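Dataset card, provenance and construction

Sequences and ligand SMILES were collected as paired inputs. For each pair, a complete structure of the chain with the small molecule in place was predicted and serialized as structure tokens. The example below shows a pair involving zinc ion. Curators did not alter the output after generation; any descriptive sentences attached to a record were derived from the structure itself.
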Amino acid sequence: MLRKPNGATIFPIDFKIKAEPLVIKNGRVIDPVNNIDKITNVILSDGVIKAVTDDIPAEFISKKSIDASGKWVIPGMMDMHVHLREPGREDKETIATGTQAAAAGGFTAVACMPNTTPALDEESKIRYVIQHAEQCPSKIYPVGAITKGLEGEELAPMGEMIRAGARAVSDDGKSVAKSNIMRNAFNYAKPFNIPIICHCEDPALSQKGHMNEGVVSTRLGVRGIPTIAEEIIVARDLLLAEYTHGRVHIAHVSTAGSVRLIRDAKKRGVNVTAETCPHYIAQTEEDVGLYDTHKKMNPPLRTAKDREVIIEGLQDGTIDVIASDHAPHVPEEKDVEFEAANFGVIGLETSFSVVNTHLVKKGILSPSEMVKKMSVIPNRILGVHGGSLTPGIPADITIVDTETPWKVDPKNFFSKSRNTSFEGYKLQGLVVMTILDGHIVFERKE
Ligand SMILES: [Zn+2]
């Protein structure tokens, strides 16, 4: 058992042993797939959802139960953009600590990006991740590399990576520079019906930038990354997906122009989905303040106008998913001058609360829209069973308290790293329990 000073507790589970029956009573059950949003009970048995019902069957009345009064009971959330750093940088995060952070953040599944050392660019490396995930408190869907070694030159063996369990491909961290390689990737991925997840950045335009290019970068004297560096590749990858009839997922959308491009592509029928991250919803370039390296990520925090358009994109369905881009770094990579600091922030343990505070509480997203963007749609994009409380599917459930105010203190994180952009922020709502295959893997107890 791992317990933090605030009572957050991870329970080690032997997943080879089947979960005991469990009744979750009187919660507000929100399951958009089955059109449920009401106070009722959820019954779990043999590690799967047995029923969502107002009347608890006689055989379950004496079974273990949880009182979820005043809480929301939702399908387990999925974060489809996470860096677990293993293999290679276990000093930042491991598969074990990253999945503990996921469980504490209410995520019963994560998709992990392949820019590890070595990169996840062949069958054996995908298998390595999947084997290490077996006893972890969150499911892991590995994303394989588009190109060998993420070098942008030669396609990685997609077929064998998918057979080993990869659910998407990406060279996240950078774009595939050569358009012909990207075209081939779309063609090659098509028969497997997997998405290509695109990190959109033209290095010739963003070269040596450290934050958004604009008034704040000028004031601080820091070289900027223009919005066009992202948008030019968003446009290219949308065109390539359209041309090849392929599937594209645009990662971490940060600019108003990207939202407009994706919206137009969707209108034309391009097979595109897109994600943004909590920091682009809650923060802007102004938050960089005086060279705060914990506000340095790639793509960078943009302007208030970009943030406004991203929020509109979330509302009108242009942006399908909210993912954290959880990117752990050790203090030596962050507690340095701004230009020398690594890009990236962690997010698994604050995502839900940021979204609840900045979107749901403000009436921008309805509770069921939030569940769609953090559970239903990411599961659908990766083609896995999850994101609903349909009887028979694995009992992966998140229980959240949407009211309690709290202050972000990284010492309570299960992640190995502390590089959050939300330290000291006051947020509302907490994950109180995470259930994986019917087992309670995380609970927050006073
Ligand atoms: Zn990226």
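Derived descriptions for this record:
The two ends are 15 Å apart (CA to CA).
The chain has two domains: 2-73+392-444, 75-382.
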